[in-house]
Structure formats: C-alpha cells, structure tokens
Design goal:
By secondary structure, the chain is mostly helical. Helices cover 60% and strands 11% of the residues.
C-alpha cells in the first residue's frame, strides 16, 4: 500500500522477490496498480466465459477421473496385505532371536531381506494415500471452479472479488503480460 495515510492511497502489487538478494539487481517485472490487475482479470474472464461450456465439460471429466479411486484402493489393500505378511514374519524372526535353535546369522540375513521391502512398501502405501487425499482436495477445488463458472451467465463488466477468489489460483506478472493460473490448472494470459 502506497501513501496509506494520504488522499493518494493506492494498492500496488510487486514481485515478492523484487529485493530478495541484497546487492543483486531487483526483479524487472513492473509494479502494478490493483486496477490494472483487476482489468486484466475482467478481460481474461471474458475469454473464459466464451469457452464456458467446453471448459465445464473438460473439468467434469477431470473430476470424474480424480474420483476413480477403486484402482488405487485395490492397490493399497494388496500392498497392505503383503506388508502385513512381512510384518508377521519379522515379528517371528525377532522372537526367534532369543531361541538357541536358530542360527543368528541366518536369522539376521532373513530379517534384513524383509526390512527393506517392508519399508519401501510402507512408503509407497503412504504416497498412494496422500495422492488419494490430494485428489479429493483437487476435486473439491475444481468443483468450486465449475460452480463459479455456472453461476455467471454474462460477461464481467466490473471486477468481482468473489469470482476472482473462486477461480484464480495465482497470477504471474511478466514485463508485458499477466498469466493467471486458474484453480483447474489451466492458464489464461492477458496483455498489459
């Protein structure tokens, strides 16, 4: 905010890394008045709404594919069953270490053979579960994006902060253009 206590107060956006390194040349992207960004969004939204039907259909297909978790769930179950068997065998090996009937070197070798695949599978299961959770989050985000598109029947004539928050993830400013990355992952570009 520039001149925050005067009649000339205005909101100006600049690169977060403009003066990141002391002594280095500052980022060359221009500082932008809030009104320039808002107008760029209005202009960009016009193009988005021109393709609204196609975009909604494409996003619905993305949501449907994200929600297809049967394959992931089956894989997680299979991997978990394999790891449960390894864990049971590892427990037996740990109990047998105190027994005099087992050769310690053989017991240790078998234990080490099972540990690495057990840990690798455990990490893979965690990643699959995280991917499934991230997919659900992404599905919610895209569904909100679709709802916002459906709610707006006519082109924007003025900046709409609610629509901005609903469909824009972030904007990247270049010397002569802004690229808006939408919440569905697509990008829309506007000359400034």
């Amino acid at each position: 905010m520039w001149h925050s206590n005067t009649q000339y107060r205005k909101v100006v956006c600049r690169c977060n890394g403009k003066y990141k390194e002391k002594g280095a040349d500052p980022c060359a992207t221009p500082n932008l008045d809030e009104s320039v960004i808002q107008q760029a969004f209005i202009d960009t939204a016009g193009g988005i709404f021109d393709q609204k039907g196609t975009l909604i259909h494409a996003m619905e297909c993305v949501v449907a594919s994200i929600m297809e978790t049967d394959e992931i769930n089956t894989l997680i179950e299979r991997l978990q069953a394999e790891n449960d068997e390894r864990e049971a065998e590892l427990r037996i090996l740990v109990r047998q270490r105190t027994s005099e009937e087992v050769v310690p070197e053989e017991n240790l070798r078998r234990y080490e053979e099972l540990c690495d695949p057990f840990e690798e599978t455990r990490k893979r299961i965690k990643k699959l579960r995280d991917d499934r959770v991230n997919g659900t989050s992404r599905e919610e985000q895209i569904s909100q994006f679709i709802s916002s598109l459906r709610e707006h029947d006519k082109p924007l004539e003025a900046f709409d902060a609610d629509l901005w928050n609903a469909i824009v993830d972030h904007g990247t400013v270049h010397p002569n253009r802004i690229v808006f990355t939408l919440k569905d992952g697509t990008e829309a570009e506007c000359e400034i």
